[in-house]
Write a structure and sequence with these properties.
single chain; about 140 residues; mainly alpha; 4 helices; rod-shaped
């Protein structure tokens, strides 16, 4: 069974409460003095715990989030390769149809196809390397 620890404020309040019931407030100065005495005695609880907080519990969560992101990055790379393959097939068919019908702009479509493929393949190499990963 856990013992409930009482804070300093609760201890002081429970010790002073019977006296406060009997005490007649004669002036606001007496109230101010009592209030300032209570606040000065419990100031330690208002400070944040700066240097002695243990953050090691979050290290495992951060490591698992890192592993998850790296795993998903690998799947995204494979997905980009698949999208690049589909774009190549569709664009190659469009270029073939344009060449057979004699339309203009075949060279522009070929350049767009090559640029799109270079971007998708280059992005799968450059973006992970930008964040420090080598896939």
């Amino acid at each position: 069974m856990r013992i409930k620890r009482r804070s300093v404020v609760d201890t002081i309040y429970s010790a002073i409460t019977p006296a406060l019931v009997r005490f007649h407030w004669r002036s606001s100065v007496q109230r101010l003095i009592l209030l300032s005495a209570l606040l000065c005695s419990a100031k330690e609880e208002g400070f944040a715990k700066c240097g002695n907080v243990d953050y090691s519990w979050g290290a495992d969560a951060l490591a698992s989030a890192h592993d998850y992101a790296v795993t998903m990055m690998l799947y995204i790379v494979y997905l980009c390769y698949a999208v690049a393959g589909i774009v190549v097939i569709v664009s190659a068919l469009q270029i073939y149809i344009k060449m057979n019908t004699g339309e203009e702009g075949v060279k522009k479509n070929i350049m767009m196809l090559v640029g799109a493929c270079l971007f998708l393949i280059g992005a799968t190499i450059v973006f992970p390397a930008f964040f420090g990963y080598q896939i």
